[in-house]
Design a protein that fits this description.
Radius of gyration: 23 Å
Distance between the termini: 63 Å
Shape: globular
Helix content: 25-40%
Region (Disordered): 145-165
CATH architecture of the largest domain: Orthogonal Bundle
Number of strands: 11
Enzyme class: transferase
CATH superfamily of the largest domain: Transferase(Phosphotransferase) domain 1
Strand content: 5-15%
GO molecular function, one term: protein serine/threonine kinase activity
InterPro entries: Kinase-like_dom_sf, Prot_kinase_dom, Protein_kinase_ATP_BS, SRPK
Strand order of the largest sheet: 1-2-3-4-6-5
Pfam family, one: Pkinase
CATH class of the largest domain: Mainly Alpha
């Protein structure tokens, strides 16, 4: 009989494979190394939670701090989404407190229905610690992936290389719902802090209560359903990881995006009270300038992210594309600031004077310095030293990437809105409510409006 394996460290290993416990897993799942004390709870289909009340039948998704499952609430016979946080995140998150506060508020704000509501919560003890479990209504895919599921009725969302491009009316509806939800949060002193496509979920618009359990269980006819069994490098039997990792199967077929739909803001894991800010986890490409410079911040960081998404949903191209080689924060920040300068214009002196590497890219009168053509650009110098790789000004950038059925009048209207939102000074940015009153959001009929 082999000896028992040592208890893994509560800290995640680096990219150095000598610190890993397992052979790599190729299935598109969370990282197997995250199953260790203080991190993810191992879950299998058929597992039950809260004294048998919730039974897991399908994997819906995962994130940096949790896994999400479709479960049956066997007490009231309904389907729910079960979010199981890592033990580490469970001990520090404000997510439950924020949801409980939202539940106390009168849902009179029109944006209240555009924030995913909490149904139940409890703590679960497992081999990796104590995990906060949050129960929500089941939701469909996120705006990060919904474009992939759209039918032929929305061809512009399926063009090769279109990324997260949506038809104009659909993009407007997604963003309108997100703004309504944000306004509801902001009016109650809550900052979301992680506004991104993956946290904008499409509501299911069929009655799941009429769907048989067998049809909602993990579909084992798909090409990839679960990973191969994890194998430790030392050959021992692991006590902290599951027997397999499940591949996420969002409930895309239960969302009809060709007609009226509802989008809701999810994941309050990064949210905070406006007067008690915490370290944000906004994706690097969606960071507002004040986050890059480590300045105080408030709800206007959510507004900046909306501006970035407005550009991306209508063009299929991110406003800022940070290079894969920027694995160090300083180089990533340099790339980010260079692209913002190219697209939006010169940084205010207050920011420029604090940019440690500004003189590497700009001369004494703030003119852009071209690199020596005889000196090869190395990875640690950033990706945007090359003049040919520089981004275009916003007006040119948007017009070159916009959808073919968008006329000049509408393009100008959207560019004007982008300029209003993407202000370097957070005090100059409009509120979510202000943006909803912009002419572009007010014009015309919207078949998706809810």
């Amino acid at each position: 009989m082999s000896s028992r394996p040592p208890t893994p460290s509560a800290e995640l290993p680096s990219s150095d494979r000598s610190q890993w416990r397992f052979h790599p897993i190729t299935a598109p799942t969370e990282w197997i190394e995250e199953y260790r004390p203080n991190w993810f709870h191992p879950i299998h289909f058929g597992d039950v939670f809260k004294d048998g009340r919730y039974k897991v039948i399908r994997k819906l998704g995962y994130g940096a701090f949790s896994t999400v499952w479709l479960a049956i609430d066997q007490q009231v016979r309904r389907y729910v989404a079960l979010k199981v946080l890592s033990a580490k995140e469970s001990a520090r998150t404000q997510e439950l407190a924020i949801h409980l506060r939202l539940a106390e508020l009168t849902p009179s704000h029109p944006g209240a229905k555009h924030v995913v509501a909490l149904l139940d919560s409890f703590r679960h003890h497992g081999p990796n610690g104590i995990h906060l479990c949050l129960v929500f209504e089941p939701m469909g895919p996120s705006a990060n992936s919904m474009a992939e599921h759209l039918s032929h009725k929305s061809p512009k969302a399926n063009e090769p290389g279109s990324g997260r491009k949506y038809p104009k009316s659909m993009a407007k509806a997604i963003l309108r719902h997100a703004l309504l939800g944000l306004d509801s949060l902001h009016q109650n002193g809550i900052v979301h802090g992680d506004v991104q496509p993956g946290n904008l979920l499409f509501a299911i618009n069929v009655d799941l209560g009429l769907v048989e359990e067998e049809k909602l269980k993990q579909d084992f006819n798909q090409k990839q359903v679960v990973s191969e069994p994890p194998k430790r490098l030392d050959g021992k039997v692991d006590k902290w990881a599951p027997r397999y990792l499940a591949v996420a199967q969002p409930l895309a077929s239960y969302v009809d995006a060709s007609s009226a739909f509802t989008v809701k803001i999810s994941d309050m894991g990064a949210a905070f009270w406006r007067d008690r800010p915490k370290e944000p986890i906004t994706p690097v490409g969606l960071r507002a300038p004040e986050l890059i410079f480590g300045d105080p911040f408030d709800q206007s960081i959510d507004v900046w992210s909306i501006g970035c998404l407005l550009f991306e949903f209508l063009t299929g191209t991110p406003l800022v594309t940070l290079c894969w080689g920027s694995d160090q924060l300083e180089e990533c920040n340099d790339d980010h600031l260079l692209q913002l300068t190219d697209v939006l214009g010169d940084l205010p002196e207050e920011y420029f004077s604090r940019w440690a590497h500004a003189r590497k890219y700009f001369g004494p009168t703030r003119q852009r310095i071209d690199p020596d053509p005889n000196t090869p650009i190395t990875e640690d110098e950033g990706c945007f030293d090359d003049p040919e790789a520089r981004a275009e000004p916003l007006e040119t950038f948007f017009r070159n990437e916009k959808q073919s059925d968008m006329d000049e009048a509408e393009a100008s209207m959207i560019i004007s809105l982008l300029r209003r939102i993407l202000q370097y000074d957070p005090k100059d940015r409009p509120s979510a409510a202000d943006i909803l009153q912009d002419p572009w959001f007010k014009q015309g009929e919207d078949i998706y409006r809810q």
